[in-house]
UniProtKB/TrEMBL annotation:
Domain Luciferase-like: 79-220
Keywords annotated in UniProt: Flavoprotein, FMN, Monooxygenase, Oxidoreductase
GO molecular function: monooxygenase activity; oxidoreductase activity, acting on paired donors, with incorporation or reduction of molecular oxygen
Annotated Pfam families: Bac_luciferase (PF00296)
InterPro entries linked to this entry: Diverse_substr_monoxygenases, Luciferase-like_dom, Luciferase-like_sf
Protein name as it appears in the record: Luciferase-like domain-containing protein
PANTHER family membership: ALKANESULFONATE MONOOXYGENASE-RELATED, C2H2 FINGER DOMAIN TRANSCRIPTION FACTOR (EUROFUNG)-RELATED
Domain of life, per lineage: Bacteria
Extent of the signal sequence: none
Keyword Flavoprotein: yes
Record keyword Lipid metabolism present: no
Amino acid sequence: MAERPIVLGVQPCGESADPGRLLERVTLTARGVDVLFLVDPPEPVAGPAPLDALAIATRVAPGVPGTGLVPQVPVTGGDPVALHDAVAALDAASLGRAGWEAVVTAPVAPTPSGELWAEAAEVVEVAHRLRAGGGTGFSGEFVQVQGRIPVPRSPQGEPVVVVRADAPEALTVAARSADVVRISAGTVAEAAMRRLDVEGAAAEAGRDPGTLRVLVDVGVGTGDGLHHSGSAGLASLARELAGAGADGVVFLPARPRGLEKVADDVVPLLRAHRTPLRTLRERFGLAIPAAGLAVSPG
């Protein structure tokens, strides 16, 4: 079997995360970046609230036809069916290039992290069931969904589910339900150890660790974890991480123009060309889920 090429992702900083700037400044199809990870823009001091990351991704999808789109999506305290339908709209707009990164947000009252991630696990399970055609409803501790008509399946079977495993509770959800796990680390050796933690947790959850993909965050310029300011250094760091078992990297530019630095200067050092992206699952080398198969909540 041919070795999978390293997946190259980038997450724009908040200042460059609105649709207009993304379309003006980034032509990622020609520049070789595989996946765009989007976060909600900063709340303005005055004026209307900006579009959230999911709405931004849906709007820019036609303008970046060769690139995967993975917005962060809060999964606590909302309607899981509405969330599923919004992600499905992105998947349709992108012709199967969509994913979504499940994140938890605490309400006004302090809530234990374990409780937030337990709710997140149920929301992800509902998404799996709805996408698999399991329209019989779901009743959990935090989420109740009445039966509904199944939606048409995506070209990739189901949008890619991403979870950042920064906390033990998040790692549990990632190991059980995610397709792609994001991690951060201070060294390449630590990143390798954290990947082993992910694989061990997946095995404990009854999954084949080979069905998971692990991406490592890399700061561009500055960062709390792995980072580098030079293009050659960033490319070298990505190669080291791939050699240590990472399936890909997510570059985190500290400034808006960091997008161009990654696309124009770093990516060409890592590969001369990119195979055209048909679906995001295909890019990650993930299998298409079987119709009617629901993932067990464990």
